[in-house]
Each structure stands twice: as structure tokens, then as C-alpha cells.
Amino acid sequence: MNDSPEIDEVDSTILRLLRENARMSYLEMSRKTGISDATIQHRLKRMRERGVIDRFTVLANPAATGYTVTAIILVQTATEMHDEAKTALSALPEVSEVYSVLGEYDLYIKVWAKSLEELNRFINDQIRAISGIEDLMEIVVVERVKEDAPPI
Q1: pLDDT tens-digit map of 101-126
Q2: Is the model's pLDDT at 1 over the cut of 50?
Q3: Which residue spans within 6-132 are E strands per DSSP?
Q4: Does domain 62-140 have CATH number 3.30.70.920?
Q5: What sequence ranges are listed for the domain HTH asnC-type (predicted)?
Q6: Where on the phi/psi map is residue 114: left (φ > 0), alpha (ψ -120 to 50), or beta?
Q7: Helix, strand, or coil here: 107?
């Protein structure tokens, strides 16, 4: 049985509009969709209550904030220290994503830095200092082709 909340086409339409502009007014959404602003307001409230909408946030342009270097890092951890390592990595502000994965490596993390030198220092001084981290494979991103949220 699937415990995820059901969303219909109206909910999906509202979510797609908000993904493009989370500050869009109910009136503007109504004009773009033909759905009444009262219905949109009700649907948003219901989606928040049901956990369909996790949060409203802003995405900063990495170039504008100076974080122009992105790295994907695969991490091998000691089995007995896996949970501690992923918790420690998650606490680092430069790490935007942490995933437990299957395969030769145990974790997949995404790291942001302002330069290659800063990335190198961060890896050597912060990441390698975490207890339980045994090996890393660093992949520096040279072009961001697509970066998006999951489909709606």
C-alpha cells in the first residue's frame, strides 16, 4: 500500500507554478490556470497539512553568492561509524546533499566551494577529519547541465 498523499492535476498545476515562482499570488495563479483563487488557497493549505508541500524556500544563484565550484564526492565509511559520518557531513554548511547509496561507496555528497583551493582545503581539513571516513572519490563538476527538483 502506498502511504503517499494523492495529488490530482489541479494540485500538480499549482505545484508546478510555485516551483517556478514561490511568491506568485493566488490571483496570478488563478489567471494563469483558470482555477479560482479560493480553490488555490484551499488546495495549498491542504497540501501543507498533508505534507505534500515540505517548505517554501529560495534558491540562490551560486555564481551570485560566490559558490561557483561544485563537487560530487563518493564516501566510503567504516561500517560501525556510518551513521556518525553521515550526521557529521550533514552538519557542514558547504554540503548541500547527503545520500546513503549502494555499491563500492556508502555515501554520495554534493559540496559547494568558492574556488578549487577552498574545495581542496575543505576536503582535507573538514571531510577527511570526520571519524569513520575511510576513502573519498572526488568529482569536480565542470558544467551544470540540469539541476532541478524531482518531477511533480
Answers
A1: 999 999 999 999 999 999 999 999 99
A2: no
A3: 69-77, 95-100, 107-113
A4: yes
A5: 7-68
A6: alpha
A7: strand
Grid look-up 517554501 returns 56
Residue 135 is predicted with a pLDDT of 97
Nine-digit cell string for 73 = 564526492
Which residues in the chain are classed under CATH 3.30.70.920? 62-140
Which CATH architecture is the domain 9-49 placed in?
Orthogonal Bundle (1.10)
| Burial call 20-52: b when 16+ CB within 10 Å, e when fewer | eeeeeebeebbeebebeeeebeebbeebeeeeb
Q: Residue 69: which pLDDT band, with cuts at 50, 70 and 90?
A: very high
How does DSSP assign 73-104, residue by residue? EEEEE-GGGHHHHHHHHHT-TTEEEEEE--SS
Cα gap 15→19, rounded to integer Å: 6
| More confident of the two residues 48 and 149 | 48
Place of cell 515562482: 21
